[in-house]
């Protein structure tokens, strides 16, 4: 998935970044984080799933700060909740649940 300018800006706002010097690196971190969260919780549309988006942003924040090895433990409850929500919506036949 390509990282939209809107998603990048939302992440930068959350991280209080105003400069553009790291945009390429931040896009990579977001892309890697989307892939990692998708592997853990299932497919989602980031623009429609606030819980998954928050997990992506938090994982990218951990990766930016060289602490990604702590993410799974610190967010295990949230990962389980979002994964369960996605699984239930897919099981119910919600066509908007998956990518």
Number of helices: 5
List SSEs in N-to-C order.
Answer: HHHHH
| Gross morphology | globular
Mean pLDDT: 92
The helix/strand class is: mainly alpha
- The share of residues in helices is 55-70%
Low-confidence stretches: none
Strand content: under 5%
Q: Mind summarizing the main beta sheet?
A: none
Rg over C-alpha atoms, rounded to the nearest angstrom? 14 Å
* Number of E-type strands: 0
Straight-line N-to-C gap: 10 Å
Would you mind describing this structure in some detail?
By secondary structure, the chain is mostly helical. 66% of the residues lie in helices and 0% in strands. It is built from five helices and no strands. It starts with a helix and ends in an 8-residue tail after the last helix. The model has no long low-confidence stretch (mean pLDDT 92).
Brief sketch in words of this structure:
The protein is 66% helix and 0% strand. With 99 residues, it is mainly alpha-helical. α2 crosses α3.
């Amino acid at each position: 998935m390509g990282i939209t300018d809107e998603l990048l800006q939302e992440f930068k706002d959350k991280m209080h970044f105003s400069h553009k010097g790291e945009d390429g690196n931040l896009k990579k971190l977001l892309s890697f984080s989307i892939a990692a969260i998708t592997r853990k919780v299932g497919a989602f549309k980031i623009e429609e799933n606030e819980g998954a988006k928050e997990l992506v942003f938090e994982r990218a924040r951990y990766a930016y700060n060289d602490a990604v090895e702590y993410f799974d433990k610190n967010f295990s409850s949230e990962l389980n909740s979002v994964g369960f929500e996605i699984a239930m919506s897919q099981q119910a036949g919600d066509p908007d649940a998956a990518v």
